[in-house]
Amino acid sequence: MKLGAAGDSYTCDYCHSVYFPDKNDDGVRILGESPDEPCPVCSVPLVQASLERTRLRYCTRCRGMLIPMDAFADLIEAVRANKAGTMPAGPNATDDSELQRRLNCPHCRQTLMMDFYASANHVVIGSCERCALDWVDHGKLQQIAYGVDVFRDGRGE
Predict the structure, then answer these.
(1) Number of structural domains, the chain?
(2) Cα separation of 12 and 38, whole Å?
(3) Which of 14, 147, 145, 18 lies closest to 91, judged by CA?
(4) Which pLDDT tens digit goes with each residue over 30-65?
(5) Distance (Å, whole) CA 31 – CA 44
(6) What residue numbers bound the domain in which 50 lies?
């Protein structure tokens, strides 16, 4: 079986049947291992995966996602449109220490730039401009997609 062109299924070379791996609670389909790319949070190997037909790398332990920058906005729209993944429980206070985290890009090993995502003022993501990749911790993509803004005081004010 080889990975299909759409990015979220496998096709058998012999009978041409198509297999779609099951989605997990995050709406992610696990496709296989990613060579030599450790999770920037927990250091386990990232796996190749897809979410809403977008290829990404995914950590099966902390459930963070490494997403190509050029696919990020379209992925957010697809998640929003299809309600993929579990919606966050509600507002939580953003910890300013998230901006001080030192995480390394799994691809080039340089330090990720931690900053607030532009359209969700209180969601912090990591970015590697060099590799054109964004790191998103578990649940933060859904916070951005569903418009669940996370406020510093935790009360939504």
Answers:
(1) 1
(2) 29
(3) 147
(4) 988 766 899 999 999 999 999 998 999 999 999 999
(5) 16
(6) 31-145
